[in-house]
């Protein structure tokens, strides 16, 4: 399943495209993920081809359903979770262990991510993802085009939920393909299950916050960031990689990964909060301002309310439900944007301090340092 570039663990560590060096974030991503992303995508494509063919044998209609699930997985994305899992593994084993035995486990994280995205888009009633219609929106359009009876929106949401469920099952199935000793795979599965539980917990708190904003706070918004995003984006993938390497839970490297992962993961979500309001839709693939439009209690909005003067707070209340651009201006005027930027910088600093004290492979240290910056200073 792996391509030749990664078969011997040879992930390139320098930008190889003209102009990459002019953009530090792009350079880091090119340096640390290019060949790995290709290997993960090849693994997913090979696995999904067989799965889609099998489902197509059940009924002719299943072919289209399975293909929609496959397309949701392969429709782009940064492959951040497999990347952090790879470097968690690589930091523990060094540069001599071959990658193919653990590649299915790394790719399985992308299937888990697709499950979370598809369900999240239904819950948030999002219309676009990565510049394309979300799964439930695309499926509703297919319902209309086919001339089916019933409510197309309801159909789209129901099938999208099934697509997310299928991706969860596929993730389990692909994880089982990892060629590691059974006892180690059992520990890997325990880490994976904890990641899933924490993701659900974070998602529930996210939904609750939208419906109980009066009882929300900056601390609770950060708790959502920790469990909805930090856990399954950075922290748990790193620990997942350490488990794949056979690293015991009490090893100092695991402690360092945990501290680094929580810090970078929270900073990642804080950057998402900013991009959700001030990002360029052409880069993010999503409309700007949805969080403000719905009053979602993100850390950014909670900080704006906490920092606002009485006059600013009154202006925020009066502007609620109005033009998003005006709300965004008011939030910035409170100093909340500057505060969130400082919080991101503080967390990146804490993550790098954790790496400095960690007994991690030197190449992995370099990669994780670069990724901490790239993941938290991005435009999409």
Low-confidence spans: pLDDT under 50, at least 5 residues?
A: 1-26
What's the gyration radius in Å?
A: 21 Å
The helix/strand class is mainly alpha
How many separate domains? 1
Oligomer: single chain
Query: What is the number of beta strands?
Result: 2
- Terminal Cα separation, in Å? 29 Å
- Largest sheet properties: 2 strands, antiparallel
Strand content: under 5%
By CATH reckoning, the class would read Mainly Alpha
Give the helices and strands as they follow along the chain. Answer: HHHHHEEHHHHHHHHHHHH
CATH architecture title: Orthogonal Bundle
Structural shape: globular
Number of alpha- plus pi-helical segments: 17
Question: What does this molecule look like?
Answer:
The chain is an all-alpha fold. It has one domain (4-376): Farnesyl Diphosphate Synthase (Orthogonal Bundle), CATH 1.10.600.10. Helices cover 74% and strands 1% of the residues. The protein has helices at residues 4-7, 24-56, 60-74, 80-93, 103-124, 135-145, 152-175, 182-211, 218-244, 252-278, 281-284, 290-294, 299-307, 310-319, 324-333, 336-356, 362-376, and strands spanning 128-129, 132-133. A two-stranded antiparallel ribbon has the order 1-2. The longest helix is centred in the first third of the chain and has 33 residues, at 24-56. Residues 1-26 have low confidence and may be disordered.
């Amino acid at each position: 399943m792996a391509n030749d570039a990664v078969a011997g663990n040879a992930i390139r560590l320098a930008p190889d495209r003209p102009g990459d060096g002019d953009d530090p974030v792009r350079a880091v991503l090119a340096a640390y993920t290019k060949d790995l992303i290709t290997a993960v995508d090849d693994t997913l494509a090979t696995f999904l081809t067989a799965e889609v063919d099998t489902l197509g044998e059940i009924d002719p209609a299943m072919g289209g359903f399975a293909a929609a699930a496959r397309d949701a997985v392969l429709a782009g994305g940064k492959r951040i979770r497999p990347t952090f899992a790879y470097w968690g593994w690589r930091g523990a084993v060094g540069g001599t262990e071959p990658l193919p035995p653990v590649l299915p486990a790394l790719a399985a994280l992308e299937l888990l991510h697709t499950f979370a995205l598809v369900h999240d888009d239904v819950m948030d009633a999002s219309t676009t993802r990565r510049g394309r219609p979300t799964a439930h929106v695309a499926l509703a359009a297919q319902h209309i085009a086919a001339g089916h009876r019933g409510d197309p929106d309801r159909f789209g949401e129901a099938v999208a939920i099934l697509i997310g469920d299928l991706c969860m099952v596929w993730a389990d199935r692909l994880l089982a393909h990892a060629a590691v000793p059974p006892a180690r795979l059992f520990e890997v599965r325990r880490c994976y299950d904890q990641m899933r539980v924490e993701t659900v917990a974070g998602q529930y708190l996210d939904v609750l916050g939208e419906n109980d904003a009066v009882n929300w706070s900056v601390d609770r918004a950060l708790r959502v960031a920790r469990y909805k995003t930090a856990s399954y984006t950075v922290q748990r993938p790193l620990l997942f990689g350490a488990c794949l390497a056979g690293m015991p839970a009490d090893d100092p490297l695991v402690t360092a990964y945990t501290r680094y992962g929580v810090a970078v993961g929270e900073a990642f979500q804080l950057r998402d909060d900013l991009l959700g309001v001030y990002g360029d839709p052409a880069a993010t693939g999503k409309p700007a301002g949805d969080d403000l439009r719905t009053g979602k209690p993100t850390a950014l909005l909670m900080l704006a309310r906490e920092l606002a003067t009485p006059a600013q707070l009154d202006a925020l209340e009066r502007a609620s439900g109005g033009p998003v651009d005006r709300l965004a201006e008011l939030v910035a005027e409170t100093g909340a944007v500057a505060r969130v930027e400082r919080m991101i910088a503080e967390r990146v600093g804490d993550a790098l301090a954790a790496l400095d004290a960690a007994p991690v492979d030197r190449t992995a240290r370099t990669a994780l340092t670069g990724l901490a910056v790239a993941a938290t200073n991005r435009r999409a």
